[in-house]
Design a protein that fits this description.
The chain has 410 residues and is α+β, with helices and mostly antiparallel strands. It has two domains: 278 residues, 4-Layer Sandwich (L-amino peptidase D-ALA esterase/amidase), CATH 3.60.70; 117 residues, Ubiquitin-like (UB roll) (Roll), CATH 3.10.20. Helices cover 33% and strands 27% of the residues. The chain has eleven helices and 15 strands. Strands 1, 2, 3, 4, 5, 6, 7, 8 and 9 form a nine-stranded mixed β-sheet that branches. The chain has a six-stranded mixed β-sheet with strand order 13-12-11-14-10-15. It starts with a strand and ends with a helix.
Amino acid sequence: MDSQFTINAQENSKGLFDCPGYKFSATAVDIRDNQSGQLDIALIVGNTPLKSAAVFTQNDVTAAPVDLCKAVLKGNPEKIGGIVINSGNANACTGNNGMADAQEMSASAQVTTNIGLPFYVCSTGRIGRRLPIDKISAGIDTCAKALKHCPTQALQASQAILTSDTCEKLATVTIQYQNKTFTLAGMAKGAGMIEPNMATMLAFIVTDLDGSHTSLQKCLSQANAQTFNCISIDGDMSTNDTVILLANGESGASIDEDPILAQAFQEALTLISEILAKKIVSDGEKITKVVTLEIKGCSSFEDAEKVARAIGNSLLVKTSFYGSDPNWGRVVDAAGYARVGLKLDQLNLHYNEVPALLSGIPQEHHTDDWKAITQKKSFTITLDLNQGDQSFKLITTDLSEAYVDFNKSE
């Protein structure tokens, strides 16, 4: 890290509230039609027109709000009104009606907030059902009248975007530079259907720095590649995945005008994205363990990623994690069917720091140590192919029978 600045992750983040220059609100309109009173509409706006960047799912099947967001991003990403979000219904696979409803959400936000600029629209929940747009429009109106910069409403906004999540996912990172403090704050949701590109998730990050769309997009794409695109729970790619970055320039400083500040911003954005990504994995549906896979010594980055995903998405590997079984044979088998030309007699495999294979030879005298490690809630498996200098890290989970029971129906 450059000695001219410092970056810190803030403990006890209050989410979007930690960043000045934004307002937010949330309400419940019973989108799920279960009369639970669960918050399901959220609104985020800035004190001024916002500059923005965004990345989306790579699924061929994209939800209407993703398509609308892409159009907004292409249209004028440096004059954005804010973001309107609903949970309980993904507005995916809903045809022309789905796009009309997404457009109605954006238009309602523009009118009711009196901002008059395009709004990003994000939806999450059940696929294949049309939105109850009348309920949602009424909810947007309610949110517009209640917009405020306060910690309670920031927390409520983070709760309104949740689906099968068990907790809010918040993060705040600050930059100290030239006796000034600059802030990035974020919130996310995601627990199931997690597999890049990207993971099944929504994430919203705001900052008080300024920057052109081009600069913001470059920074977000780089941060996303190293964080949100390096997690996997169940191997299923979603239809609605979206990460949006908003910048209001409230601090008076721009990443376009200072290369050192730009470097600091890139590091801070990557850090806050990593924190949110880890919180998503840690809240995976009915998981009991979080496992970091570090694949090293590959001849290319693509090979390293291919091996990591083969291991991380293997049902046999994931169930062995759940059973606290250090079955390195399943790990090596999965690495082999990635078909990158690995050679068994070159492999080094470790559970945390304890070797399981050295040059392909099992280190059976460490069996009890492996078992103790795999009983922990989190641990690391490192696989070195010894074929090059490229690496890839993937954060994944185990797979339990409770996951099957949970997902038999929605």
